[in-house]
Amino acid sequence: MNHVLGRLTAGDCCIIAILLVAAVAAWLLARGSKGATVIAEQEERVIFTAPLHSRCRVLLPGPEGATELQVAEGQAWISQSSCPQHLCQHQGAIAKNGEALVCLPNRLLIRIVGPPSPVTDYDFLSR
User: Fold this and answer.
1) For the domain that residue 62 is a member of, what is the CATH number?
2) Same domain, yes or no, for 43 and 63?
3) Which residue has the higher pLDDT, 37 or 6?
4) Same domain for 21 and 68?
5) Residue-wise pLDDT tens digits, 68-94
6) In the chain, how many domains are there?
7) Which H/E stretch holds residue 3?
8) Is the pLDDT of residue 109 over 80?
9) Would you give the DSSP letter of residue 91?
10) Within this chain, do residues 101 and 64 fall inside the same structural domain, yes or no?
């Protein structure tokens, strides 16, 4: 190991440092922010919305039958589905802005959106 470290140049060390910083930045950005609202859509129409901090269970109709969506403790998940393979049930819970659950046979998209950004009267800000 010392043999390899002894061969590193200053440029090699700079490249390694840049890669480490980029990896940490990518990890921090990928974590995502906490979502605020769950939205269920079917064929591009919103059929259900609820705040993530609420506690509810709703049956969403679909071509294959009903899909049960549960919202509790800041998360949303599909607990029951009438689709043939039940893949949507195995996707787990979602809670972060941008995460989504999909049930293709029932044509459902359940997604999380974050808190609205503050409204501003300008398009661009420069210092």
Assistant:
1) 2.60.320.10
2) yes
3) 37
4) no
5) 999 999 999 999 999 899 999 999 999
6) 2
7) helix 2-6
8) yes
9) G
10) yes
Provide the pLDDT for residue 93.
95
Instruction: Give the single-character DSSP code of 111.
Output: E
| DSSP letters for 32-56 | -PBP-EEEEEETTEEEEEEETTS-E
Residues 107 and 48 in one domain: yes
Question: Two tokens at 63?
Answer: 């071509």
Q: Does residue 42 share a domain with residue 17?
A: no
Burial (0-12, 13-18, 19+ Cβ within 10 Å), 12: exposed
Q: Are residues 75 and 108 in the same domain?
A: yes
* Residue 67 near residue 88, CB atoms below 8 Å: yes
Q: Which domain holds residue 59?
A: 37-113
Encoded tokens for 6: 């002894």
Residue 122 has pLDDT above 60, yes or no: no
Two tokens, residue 94 = 């979602």
pLDDT at 31: 62
Q: What is the pLDDT of residue 23?
A: 79
Higher per-residue confidence, 117 vs 20: 20
